[in-house]
Amino acid sequence: MADIKKYLGGSPSTLNQLNISVVLDRIRRQHSITKSGLAKNLNLSLPTISRIVNTLIEKGYVIEAGFGKSSGGKKPKILEFNSRKAFIAGIAIDINFIEIILSDLSGNERKYLHKEFLSDKNPDTIIETIIEYINKSVEETHIDKKELEVISLGIPGMIEKETNLVKLIPTIPVWEGINLKEILTKKTGKEVLIDNMNNMSLLGERWKGKANGYNDVVFVGVGTGIGSGILINGKIFRGFNGSAGEVGYMFIDRNMDKSISDPQGQFEYLASEIALKKEICKMCLSDNISMENSDRHIIGLLEDAKYFKHILGIIDNFAYGITNLITILNPELVIVEGSLFEKSENAFEYLVKKVKELSKFKTKITMSSLGKKAISIGAVIHGLKYLDKKIISPLFL
Length: 397
Known about the structure:
Blueprint: H1 12-30, H2 35-42, H3 46-59, E1 62-67, E2 77-81, E3 87-93, E4 97-104, E5 109-116, H4 123-141, E6 148-155, E7 158-159, E8 166-167, H5 180-188, E9 191-196, H6 197-208, E10 217-222, E11 226-232, E12 235-236, H7 258-261, H8 266-271, H9 273-286, H10 295-302, H11 305-308, H12 312-329, E13 333-337, H13 339-343, H14 345-358, E14 364-367, H15 373-392
Parallel strand pairs: 3-6, 6-9, 10-13, 13-14
Antiparallel strand pairs: 1-2, 3-4, 4-5, 7-8, 10-11, 11-12
Helix pairs in contact: 1-3, 2-3, 6-15, 12-14
């Protein structure tokens, strides 16, 4: 919440807008309150409160929801924040899935959809799928499409600040250089927000996951690639051109030829789940074991001590990268998201032990509590904060 004192002495219109923002924020946080309750809590006159509340009701941000208890006179009307005034579509796009959460203005999940992709990663095909699933979530929730205010996406790449072009997306290289924001805005007529999926995951974890209450956090997502989101003093750190957190490009082995790990980067090449699956394939071939390309089958093999010891080098590589991040950024917390560490207790315990051996600093390392859903949850809160700034409380946040 902003410091109200700094607005004192401002123009009447500024103070009026501030009062509106304060009243609306209090109604939203209190869930249900009366005009007299607002006047008492905010130290504003009842006529001022009545005028502001009437404006908010007229604009649709507040509704009257029954009557409260009377102390002798007329029963006071209960005021509530209208969560259905607008909706946000929080969307996660990765190499093999699309996920969407349709949320109201209070962050309540109204619809959840998940779809595994086939092999076609053509931008046009995925954009059609995004629009299809937005429409499906709206139709199945029975809301007016006009009420959908923001489409917020997390993608496995970065958005160039000056041009809005998709960059650094080796897992879906055909997306390189497209203006996804412009395309989706034209096709949907909605405000479109796009950020890296690891930044979105970090926002999701801070809202509803393990990072709640922390201000200095590093989120590391490991799957087909490796990326991170960095929280410093409670804010996402993006760097000079928005590429902060692209840790897959870190160098952790000076003896390795750079050309071998291009285009994804050395850390990603040596420590991602792709590296793990390659090693598992080698072991299966040498032992004449059928290799199924499924997480369940791979995790099952890793529970066997014979196979687990062969992938310790990959976990070591991951630990080197985590240790470097801890050394440079000194976070309170590191959150790891990835199926290997989520499903193999041995792998995560070994990782934590290895980092403790390597690092000079005591930093808590934990698994994500939200998994891949952190991306779409983060996209929702990203959209909600945008609406707070643009529509609900422009002077307040």
